[in-house]
Amino acid sequence: MVQLLRKGAVICLGLRQLIDGGFSIDNVAAIPSKALLVTEPLSYRSPIYDRREDHLYKLAADPAGMMYTATATARKNNLKLYHEAMASQANPLPYTYENQVYSNGLSSNRPPFTFNTQNWESAAKERLSDEAYGYLWGSAGTRETEDNNRAEFKKWGILPSRLVPDPVTSLKTNLFGEEYDFPIAIAPVGVQQLFHRDGEIATATAARKESVTYILSTASCTSTEKVAEANGGGSRWYQLYWPDNEHNNITASLLNRAKQNGYKVLVVTLDTFVLGWRPSDLDHAFNPFLRPDHIGVELGLSDPVYHKYYEEKFGKPVEADLSPAIAEWVRILFSGISHSWEDLKFLQQHWDGPIILKGIQTIADAQRAVAAGVQGIVVLNHGGRQQDGVVSTLAVLPEIVEAVGDRLEILFDSGIRSGADIAKALALGAKMVLIGRPYVYGLALGGEEGVRHVLRSLLGELQLTLHLSGIKSVSQKDLNRSVVRRTGF
Ligand SMILES: Cc1cc2nc3c(=O)[nH]c(=O)nc-3n(C[C@H](O)[C@H](O)[C@H](O)COP(=O)(O)O)c2cc1C
């Protein structure tokens, strides 16, 4: 058979025959590229043939391109079947994702994305430009803060409880008087078109389909209105990068647009009045906001009050020359000077729903938040992106919960990479957990479907982990300090 292929023959045959015919990574290079090999989808892999079929997978990536036609078709078929399966079950109990995948496997349909949560990052890296990957993965300085975030999770262990015949754990949670299907939310992440052409639209759609709250970043590539449209009947909040006081009218406009478009909770990010010291971006001399294709600035470009301000100050409309107009917008958002606690009053006057402060790391600041009269805080260190050498978020969560947990809602963010991580953060007192980089890796891997896969995987694993521990629900009465133990220091 190899001889025939060498002569440029078109051959149709199955994988087994192909392997049995002696086709391997070692002899493919000699085959001319006009030869065409058609096989059944590569999703069909008998476990018995596993080791030899690995050859085929390598061939698929071989520059000789021999297997390309077959592989691309296989991937497409595989994705199509997967899409159908995803669409057929709107918002199932998350743990049933596992059953669904195994039963699809019976008809030779393998999932197009890995379930190995640790591999999402490396898989995304293969797809992204160095700049985009650097921006996503990047953290401040030596990445010690991010390492601290991860290390802390390993110091806590979940304690199982046996012979508990309860039904599977309920993941519903209550926040600000509303019931949410799941105790997780999509963390605000800017410039999502850097990672996939569908950017925020893909993520907001995925969030709606999986019944997970979407938090829109002020640094989005898509307007408040268009994201609301994609998110439709889903739950959505708005994250504010807070313009300096001189531009309160712009802030009021951003809040007003969010309110008008169904964003229910205001999340105010406190730790990013200037971008952190990030070697991965500095090495590439890359600031996504200043790119010539103008991504991450759509909320400014679509804001009527900003347009008016710009025209009055510079004597020309924003459209006349986009680059300086964008530079001005970025300067207003990241002014380099922090707001003060006093300034919160302005937001309270212009927002009638709950306000959450994102970026609290100490008891003192949590108490100030209580005194300021906000409804919630997100305990986080921005995933280590802003400051190096900072204490891990999980390490400070218990003391903050103890100090103020009865006076406002406490959310958690930074370092979540698995369902078990979510379980630990909830057990240590968080009401809701924000998912950051993992869903962006999913976005890079497969747009909307990639994000859905990440959300389903995390929720499915969370639900099974809790169920196997005999925990009835994610409410504090069932999921609390008694179900975890600190095992390391
Ligand atoms: C690429 C990227 C962009 C981000 N953009 C924003 C943003 O626009 N607003 C914001 O409040 N936080 C932003 N964050 C921080 C996330 O909301 C979240 O706090 C962080 O990702 C948590 O860390 P983890 O991803 O390591 O879990 C961003 C994070 C990443 C990775």
Automatic annotation (TrEMBL):
Keywords: Flavoprotein, FMN, Oxidoreductase. It comes from the Eukaryota. Its cofactor is FMN. Residues 109-487 form the FMN hydroxy acid dehydrogenase domain. It comes from Oidiodendron maius (strain Zn). This is FMN hydroxy acid dehydrogenase domain-containing protein. One of its GO terms (molecular function) is oxidoreductase activity. The lineage of its organism: Eukaryota, Fungi, Dikarya, Ascomycota, Pezizomycotina. PANTHER family: FMN-DEPENDENT ALPHA-HYDROXY ACID DEHYDROGENASE PB1A11.03, S -2-HYDROXY-ACID OXIDASE-RELATED. It holds the Pfam family FMN_dh.
